[in-house]
């Protein structure tokens, strides 16, 4: 009798979960032992984190249980910090309650799928690491929600004395970096939410809160095209949100955020949504990278590493749905949840094919479209290239999210949250369950646990 082979999936995000579901369907239990390594016991449905920050959806309702979704998989909680393709082992830093400990575990594999996803992109800007808050995890999104309420509570409790005007202004100023999906949705939705709970405070007027959204890019939501981007920009400005394009953060000094145009902005709230980058694990492998993402072929195979596949946000998967430029390389798929889901499914099929079950195939997927929820009845969407705004776009956006949520129980909970939010007064409760130092980007996303590569990774 042939021993079962161990298939290990690194990452419990969209790619890992969907690959695991496909493997459970295709591979008999007698053929393969299935293992998934993840920092948490759940997938975070990150496209709805702005709803968490705006107190529309309960945080746990965007968390999809990996144990329930993948009953045949052994779940190992921890961060994969290194891979040895020759020995066919991975090293896992164990974690408890999201905190990485000192213990490590070495796990062998026969087949390996690398799908560790992405982390918030930061730049070496003085003061940002010590002050900026990301919104990539449930912990961060819930903290930003509580932080906004706490800042306004503090501003409301300050004495009516000119000596406290500067502090009051700092607490009532919100700066967000990144006018892509994350930054735009966070600002739009939290602004609307706080305006609806204005009666929580007696000594301040929430309408006096200054909102500043900045981006070095020349447009808002550039992925959706100029017309929808302009619609979103007009909607934001119509709510009194100050949008500055072609501008970024120069440095942060104490409670002052200095912009690259020379403007100092006194504020105690800096939300960082300026894009994502591949998980730092990929930079430790010594294998070819494309802008930080591990180079793979259209079947997700990693050159130079036998029985290793990579997919999702951390892999540079060729986008065969787009034409290859005459004077350049094949484009790679953008790091979206939509691609991550579908790549996971195809990666599962391709790994099963290595067992002689089915045939491996190239990944080809044309984007179904993108959506952005701006709060209330305002949204923009581009399903199948059709530009939509307002309530129709809102319906499309929410319909897509319900479809894309991997578990029916989560769909029902999210749908219930939306319904309750529509008919009941919004909640404004700061639970303050996370320490401020734990909600900074580095500790919240554990981006500092990866060893340096033994040699500089080659660039593909």
Automatic annotation (TrEMBL):
<keyword id="KW-0274">FAD</keyword>
<keyword id="KW-0520">NAD</keyword>
<protein>
    <submittedName>
        <fullName>NADH dehydrogenase</fullName>
    </submittedName>
</protein>
<dbReference type="Pfam" id="PF07992">
    <property type="entry name" value="Pyr_redox_2"/>
</dbReference>
<keyword id="KW-0285">Flavoprotein</keyword>
<feature type="region of interest" description="Disordered">
    <location>
        <begin position="322"/>
        <end position="345"/>
    </location>
</feature>
<feature type="compositionally biased region" description="Polar residues">
    <location>
        <begin position="335"/>
        <end position="345"/>
    </location>
</feature>
<dbReference type="InterPro" id="IPR036188">
    <property type="entry name" value="FAD/NAD-bd_sf"/>
</dbReference>
<dbReference type="InterPro" id="IPR023753">
    <property type="entry name" value="FAD/NAD-binding_dom"/>
</dbReference>
<dbReference type="InterPro" id="IPR045024">
    <property type="entry name" value="NDH-2"/>
</dbReference>
<comment type="similarity">
    <text>Belongs to the NADH dehydrogenase family.</text>
</comment>
<keyword id="KW-0560">Oxidoreductase</keyword>
<feature type="domain" description="FAD/NAD(P)-binding">
    <location>
        <begin position="6"/>
        <end position="344"/>
    </location>
</feature>
<dbReference type="GO" id="GO:0003954">
    <property type="term" value="F:NADH dehydrogenase activity"/>
</dbReference>
